[in-house]
Amino acid sequence: MQESFSVVSSSNSYQVQIGENLLEQVINKHKDSFFIIDSNLKKIVPIKFKNYIFIEATEKNKSLEKIPEIILKMREARLNRTSHVVAIGGGIIQDIVTFAASIYMRGISWTYMPTTLLGMIDSCVGGKSAINILGYKNLIGNFHPPKSISIDVSFLETLNNEQIVCGLYEAVKISYAKDIETFLSYLDCSPKLPLNNSTAQNLISKVLKTKKWFIEIDEFDQKERLILNFGHTFCHALESSTDFAIAHGIAVGMGMIIAIQFSKNENLLNDKGIERTELLKNYIKGIINNYISDLLEKYPKLDLNYVLKNFDNDKKHETNSYRIILPKDDGGLVMINKDKTENARQKIIKAYQEGLKIVGYPNF
Amino acid sequence: MQESFSVVSSSNSYQVQIGENLLEQVINKHKDSFFIIDSNLKKIVPIKFKNYIFIEATEKNKSLEKIPEIILKMREARLNRTSHVVAIGGGIIQDIVTFAASIYMRGISWTYMPTTLLGMIDSCVGGKSAINILGYKNLIGNFHPPKSISIDVSFLETLNNEQIVCGLYEAVKISYAKDIETFLSYLDCSPKLPLNNSTAQNLISKVLKTKKWFIEIDEFDQKERLILNFGHTFCHALESSTDFAIAHGIAVGMGMIIAIQFSKNENLLNDKGIERTELLKNYIKGIINNYISDLLEKYPKLDLNYVLKNFDNDKKHETNSYRIILPKDDGGLVMINKDKTENARQKIIKAYQEGLKIVGYPNF
Asked: Using a CB-CB distance cutoff of 8 angstroms, which residues of chain A are in contact with residue B107?
């Protein structure tokens, strides 16, 4: 069973297709396109086209310094303004191709086949890229949505639990951010691992349609879409402080718990809010305990002062205040500006301490 | 007398302000912004702000390879998503800042003060950038219009005849492209050099409002705006074949005459079309004779086979056909696809020969 729906963006309207065994279809349809493929998929993607490159999905390759190589390959394949690119891979491949396709001859069209759950259930729609430059992670980026997205859930078989959980944490975040009904409905159908294809397809469809609401109402991150950064400000500092030993999606899960603790300590939540955030905390904790508890043991020791320093440097803050997405009142998310005072810093450290304890982080 | 009007784009609506002595105003309004200034203007722009860089307006600096340096300066000045950039300079500075501002933290706002007539009368609106990469000229670029444009015609005093003519040729092109009335009305008020400020202001206002029509109806170069490439396909090959000894605007003038010859040889024009294109040819020739005839003597020898090779490589063509903007019937512009045959190549060379002879190119 295939399913499809469309997403409206300012530059184009694009189609999202979800199903099994779509890879062959996409390849046959785009034989003349230029393929950019995660090098991990060498054995999985049949090379039935002329123009392609494989790229290792590393942070180093997701950098402006590497973009010229890719543009050069596109030029050598004589791509022009009417040419098309097909990207097959996870978030890093998506970032690279979004950026490269957006600037090549002022933008050419592309098709995206996400191959991670995070790509399928979250990042494939919205059109964002994030690119490293001179060692600064994600300092640059832009918006250039694909012309079409084909989600082949068969790729999920290639993923391990860590990769699946990364997707689930972003998925629950999107659902939580929308409203209480969407959140509860997500919890109702959140699956046990391993995921089977039909469960995955239902879940992906449900969550992407929620994300569609956010990006159609606020494509360029001005207002509603900003609350999808829930957990992210706390999470980025965890990632950078551990040299990215913690995968992004896992850090988002931890970041949401830390944000909830911050809200509780600030007395931002009423009884309903406490109840709603407890549900989310329990969901996140449950997944860690059930599926990735072995991972935690491998995470490096965290120095919370160093974490705070990285938190300080997050690009989302303003000059004199922290900008944090927090649950407030009945648990709905809002963006809060908090003056950069010593008092605020102490509260941030406290929230990290409590949150990391809750998730069972071994060493901080 | 100041004047202002707005341009609507998909991402924002921006204000264009035209007048004298606006520099001081802009600086006072944006003291906290990050200034990027053409290094030729060191003696003209008073440094009454903290964060700034000067950039030499060279093709080498208008390259992706140089972008990291600029992004680094922006990061070191601690610019965040709410920060603002002010660009003061001609087309190269505009290209660099459009691109850098568009990717820094996924896009920050900027103000543009064009300082060349070409910048003031044409490129400042529309939001396009064109950036070199690995030696390929303008292979990449994007769209990121400024939040506001302040045109201070006092900068015109700093320009020589060649720079003024570059602006006039793009201006007559825009006016010709719109319709016969707009073209005739442009010819009526096209000034003798040197330009005085009030004449310049009227002319700039008139032409920008014509360009506004094109970019509001077709921001992303899909249809109507494409005909503003009139003259450009022929012109790019002249520029690259002479190692850019011919300034872009001058080459556009020559390119339009060559395109007209191509149309005539193809019998695309009726009597009215002949009449209208003759008016344009005479205007272009007249300006060369009156103001820049000394320049022609300095241009390098052209090898037309090499010119044709560069014409072939223009990014606007499709795989199997040339895409050229040509006057047709009564002289209105259309995009024509011409199969890449030997016959077509001969006709292109013939048009170059005739066109270059008409403008008095000394050596080809």
From this structure: 142-143, 220
